Amino acid sequence: MWCNNKIKSIISSVERRDTAFFWAMMVITFYAFTVRILGASDGLPYLYWRHWDEPQIASTALRILKTGDLNPHFFNYPSFMIYACLVVDVLHYYFLMGREGIDGLYIGLTNLDEILINIDTGWNWTISHPSFYLWNRALTVLMGTISVPVVGLIALRAYGKWVAILASLIMSGLAFHIYHSIRITTDLPFSFFVLLVVLFSFRFHCTKELKYLILALVCVGLATANKYNAVISMVVPTIAFMINIRKITFSRPLGMLLIFIVPPVVFLCINPYAVFDLRDFLMQSGYEVRHYMVAGHGANTVEPGMKHFMLQLKRIASNLDSFTYYYCFVGILVTVWRYPYAAIIILSFPLGYLVLMSQQCVGFHRNFIVIYPFFAIFAAAGIYFVLLFFQKLVLYLKIKKRLVRNLIYSLPIIMLVGYFGFLWYSSLYDLLSTGIPVDNRTFAIAYMNKMAKNRPGGSVGIAAELRIHQTDLNKLKVPYEIFNHKDIHQALDRFDYVLVGEYADSSKDLPDSPNKAEEAKLLNAMTPKNNYARVISGNQVFLTCCPIESPKIIVIKGRRR
């Protein structure tokens, strides 16, 4: 009887711990989703230079939607995110067809041709209906959010529940990961699928079941369908298979065959035009190889080798706090010592990827977002191992006073709670204190409406070079007209207020951009230096490119004023 009660007590205790772990992970995941989705509208209805890759994916998906031609005709990146965004766009198209008018970023549609993109205007950053971008970003937010519990599951399999919770906590509030979770790029989806590769490979290592090997290989194909260099993730399931080759119950030749067949088949299923449009595929993917290995990219060109390797480590250190960064190396050392197989499986990708990318001469750090989850895992392990050592030290010292012993035990817990509390607070504070950033062009329109309310009957001239979006123009409550900046003197005679920008040449930063230095200098010289009504601080406007961030806008009183 006592034995049965004891067993029931143990089972009940385990169930309670499992329930607590489940709800802890749910709370962490909910927080991760909240801080990511709140930033998804950043900049819209405008795009910035720091969102450079978004039109390459989102506008290509919209072009397929408009034309029905499933060939992306764009192979600088693989096509997974283009087709994923296309699926979202089809759903959103029907959503907008059922709406009328304009409500924030949502503009109702009456037919497909109303959607304007770069091929319609010649301006690469055209987004006539910005809610398409918002929904596409929500897709990336979803992948970024799910990455948090996936990191927890990897840590759970390798170390246990406490490390899983700690790793998920670190990931949920990691600012660099949050930033890339709200962009329509290939970087975050690539990271997401690589995490699944590691998770399923580790699961295969624990169970020796064929289905987990297949799932890991499918995810290798999906990761490579996001970024070509993700092919190196193949090393993870291959190592897991080789470690367990004597223990598996299925055919060894079958396992080897699957390793070499499944990833390319998955890749080609998602990128069929890599075969059907072979020439364009080879031309554009080959361009990226040369771009990264030989040509470089302006200010982001780095000397390959150890210098590049150390540069990226320094950038990782700057994006992580010192606490997380250095505990990561503690976690790696202890894992290699205590769990060598786990260390080999989990470390194989980040080490291999760092070595591969450091041999290239383009230093974009966004390519290394995939490394951050591994830092979170090993940092959590490092923290946990230090706490275990601290606990054993207290036991070794044989402190008899219970109060003193409890205080010593509680000290590191209090420090951890403070650390993660600060991590979460800082992530939320950035959003809640500043809100979602409002573009200066949106602010300028609101300012003109305020001026019109105080002094009705005016009119506004707006420089075409500012490229103020139609959603903002529709909010303007006074008559307006778009003019070319070179005609500013006529505009000053015709309008009560004139909105212009301050221009710069983008060719210094974009090697392929046409030189507009003289034109930018001429336009700036034409702007009168007096009679300003207001100057809204911001970045210079590029004549051939979108601004780096919210542009500087000068409000000038017309001669009527």
Describe the structure.
The protein is mainly alpha-helical. The protein has 2 domains: 2-38 and 138-433, no CATH class; 440-557, no CATH class. It has 22 helices and 9 strands. The protein has helices at 2-37, 54-67, 80-97, 118-121, 131-158, 161-172, 175-180, 187-207, 210-224, 235-243, 252-270, 273-276, 278-295, 306-319, 322-338, 340-358, 372-397, 402-434, 440-454, 470-473, 488-494, 517-526; strands at 102-103, 106-107, 460-463, 480-483, 497-501, 503-504, 532-536, 541-542, 553-557. It has a 5-stranded mixed sheet with strand order 4-3-5-9-7, sandwiched between helices. Helix 20 (470-473) links the parallel strand 3 (460-463) and strand 4. The longest helix is centred in the N-terminal third of the chain and has 36 residues, at 2-37. It is globular and about 85 Å long. The model is unreliable at 1-8 and 10-15 (pLDDT under 50).
The share of residues in helices is: 55-70%
| Ends distance | 96 Å
Low-confidence stretches: 1-8, 10-15
- The chain-level structural class is mainly alpha
- Quaternary structure type: single chain
Strand tally: 9
Mean of residue pLDDT values: 86
Number of helices: 22
**Global Rg:** 28 Å
What is the approximate shape? globular
The profile of the biggest β sheet is: 5 strands, mixed
- Please report which band the strand proportion falls in: under 5%, 5-15%, 15-25%, 25-35%, 35-45% or over 45%: 5-15%
Give the strand order, joined by hyphens, for the main sheet: 4-3-5-9-7
Our count of domains comes out at: 2
